[in-house]
Amino acid sequence: MYCVFHVDVNSAYLSWEAVYRLQQGDSVDLRTISSVVGGNEADRHGIVLAKSIPAKKYGIHTGETLHSARQKCPGLMVVPPRYGLYMQCSEAMVAIMSQYAPLIQRYSIDEAFLHYQFPPGMTPGPEAEAAAVKTATRLKAQIRQELGFTVNVGIGPNKLLAKMASELRKPDQVHTLFLHEMPEKMWPLPVQELFFVGRATARKLRGYNIFTIGQLAATDPKLIHCWLKKPGLLIWQYANGLDHSRVTDEPVPVKSIGNSSTLAFDVTDRATAHQILLSLCETTAMRLRKIRRCAQVVSVTLRSDKLITCHHQRRLEVPTDVTSLIWQEACRLFDDIWQKEPLRHMGMHLSDLCSNDYYQLSLFHQHLEKHHQLDKTIDALRSRFGTRAVFRGCFSHSPIQPLMGGVLQDQEVEYPMMASYL
């Protein structure tokens, strides 16, 4: 018999940043003051990525602008993100979790599910639940002692209830949510706190006088389906604690790959826009080849200085993973839809992916194999020597970075491993 643990880092980016800074000699713990991890305002990436508990008391929310956050808390401390550091912290946490369970499913950079096997001969009941709590408490303490940050651990019979349990009270807590505990712990909660229920769905449910998870669970599923169609049946099942998904370490098949960037300046000319698309395509095509896929559909998204968004896509005659061919198609799509308005955000997206083990040759691309070999060589050099080891000459004296989007450059920085200061 088994149950599921859901491990969730408390204020992940901020906690990891705080512990790293303490390790480097800082005297102030970011977790104890009003602080946030935020993007670069000069590059127009100024939003809150993570917040401390003191900052949360001012009503600061993840995703709001730093300008808005400072209005709520004038003394707010803002620190820039270091994604490479955060990836290392996540890897270190997973390494500890692997000591407790052979099967781990990474849900995000700061969350994971563990398949916890009860001790041999132990049947579900109070004794088994107590054993799970004891193990989860030991796991939580080891992460705090060895890595210096805190986590919540939720325990349940399935992934849904384990995740709901980890959200009950923070930080640094272990909570259980087994089926017999649902009437007391989960059903009184507001319906918007149920996993998969967003603001729009919660608003619809309140329109039908459903305000709590318990009220949703007690509603006739036929009515829920009538109101919300198939997604309604799913949240009704969740409200009743039903989740048949298994903890799995198999990677989720990638169905599409995208890359976008909010620009540091408004783009007003075609040449600059094409260069930005080249930078975005370089990153995206490299990721595409890494998973051994070709793309059959290319799409481009533009957002103007007035925040008006337009989107255009086209199916390729021949699937490809070649950077130059993807870029050429992206440029054609851009030229089709751009109305000369200043642009503050650009993105591109590859979808309808297929294997790149075999690719169809085209009469119109006589040097296709040379392009394949060139991309393969560049990928190998970047993998060995860093993403900036090789880049096109057009980026050498340009304000545009050669590989825009993502966190590739920061990931190459080696940070000393964290240790506890508690």
Give a quick summary of the entry:
The chain is an alpha+beta fold and 422 residues long.
Q: What does this protein look like?
A:
Helix content is 39%, strand content 21%. Strand 10 (293-304) and strand 11 (309-320) form a beta hairpin. The strands form 3 sheets. Strands 5-6-1-7-8 form a 5-stranded mixed β-sheet. A 4-stranded antiparallel β-sheet has the order 9-12-10-11. Strands 3-2-4 form a 3-stranded mixed β-sheet. Among the domains are: 13-82, MutS, DNA mismatch repair protein, domain I (3-Layer(aba) Sandwich), CATH 3.40.1170; 187-239, DNA polymerase, domain 1 (Orthogonal Bundle); 256-411, Dna Ligase, domain 1. The chain is α+β, with helices and mostly antiparallel strands and 422 residues long. The protein is globular. Helix 1 crosses helix 4. It contains 14 helices and 12 strands. The two termini are 36 Å apart.
**Mean pLDDT value:** 91
SSE order, one letter for each helix or strand: EHEEHHEHEEHEHEHHHHEHEEHEHH
DSSP strand content: 15-25%
Multimer state: single chain
Helix count from the secondary structure assignment: 14
CATH topology of the domain at 256-411: Dna Ligase, domain 1
Tell me roughly what share of residues is in helical segments: 25-40%
Structural class: alpha+beta
The largest sheet is:
5 strands, mixed
Uncertain segments of ≥5 residues (pLDDT<50)? 414-422
Rg, please?
Answer: 24 Å
CATH superfamily of the domain at 256-411: DNA polymerase, Y-family, little finger domain
Top CATH class of the domain at 256-411: Alpha Beta
Q: What sort of overall outline do the alpha carbons produce when their principal axes are compared?
A: globular
Strand order of the largest sheet: 5-6-1-7-8
Protein name: DNA polymerase-4
Organism: Anoxynatronum buryatiense
Domain UmuC: 4-198
Pfam families: IMS (PF00817), IMS_C (PF11799)
